[in-house]
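Fig. S4 source data, part A: sequence.
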Amino acid sequence: MGALREYLPDYGWNTLSLFFGNYLQLPLPAPEPEISAAELPPIDIAGDAIEPITPIDESLLEQDEISEGEEEIDQNFVDEPSDSLGELADELGELPTLANEAADVKPDEQPLSVEDEFLESMQQRVEDGLRQLNTLGQFNLVIVAYGLSANWAAASLNKRFEGREGVPGYSLVLINARANQYPAVDLNDSLAQLKIPMLDIVTGQSSIDQRRATQRRNAITRKQNTRYIQIQLPAVKSSLTGKKNLITRRVRGWLKSNAAGEEVDVTSR
């Protein structure tokens, strides 16, 4: 990606780079639950027998709590006070009806899950980059997505198009695109919804990656996107070949034929 970012400006393209370094990680497994004391098995402890304690004579602890000449008061015959609760209730009358404020309060919106918040933040980064280019007067845009960034590029473009097909001024270049696994993203379905010029480059990958690339190509071509092409290229190390290599030249040639600048109605965008 660095070589392509340095190579395209030599042929009239302005570039803006977006980095996605803080990918969401799978949560750690939950710790094992602690065992309570009631669930523990009984433990037998052997030892000498303990002699019982001699009981204390309770008669020695009794005391006469009633003094001589003082009679115990029978609580059943105590006179009621003049200001009883019944008389106070009659004087107060009926209490005013209070409004049920709790019923008027709307329940708070459910917060987004960690996964949904992550997807929105990634998608928002791409949208901010596209908006920045539009602010600078750039409306013929080519999104180059490498690896997992293909997920956020496809989602952002679908949201920007809002179901419209064949929006002019947009193209997508994929380099070793990979579907996100956590949270799971259906990359093939997102790409198949796009009806824009699309170059899908696959370099020397494992058999699993090759099979996924074939599934991606089949999913997009089934949607009759005639401007989609997938090509196989050998892996390139830009540290050895520099910015002018097989991949950068192939991308430039495709852009010249499929994404050259054109006049569009800016007000409808």
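Fig. S4 source data, part B ends here. The first helix runs from residue 2 to 7.
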